[in-house]
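Why does residue order matter? Because the sequence determines the fold. Keep that principle in mind as you read this record.
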Amino acid sequence: QVQLVESGGGSVQAGGSLKLSCAHSGYRYSLKQCGLGWYRQAPGKERELVSSISSRGTMIYADSVKGRFTISQDKAKVTLYLQMNSLTTEDTAVYFCAAGIRLSCGTSFAPNYWGQGTQVTVSS
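Structure:
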């Protein structure tokens, strides 16, 4: 059973930094990891893609976080990270780790597994 467990959320003042982690496991050997990513959902807003990384290492960022956030993986590729710098109040949201785990991969990131979410609160 695929499991995604986020950690690292919390409260920080504007201009500060946080690093989110997502430990992922439980893949059946017959399935492929098609990509990993981070989404966020602020109160009253739709869930939005923050950043993703494909199985080939191609990274995508939302325009609102470019230059401030960095997505990465550990060498064993069992933990996904999101380094968040220069945080603003607009970054306040629940952040979700997401993974696309399938028999075959498509051309775009389409997650079908989600973590439980971790709260990030940025105060002014």
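The chain is about 0% helix and 55% strand.
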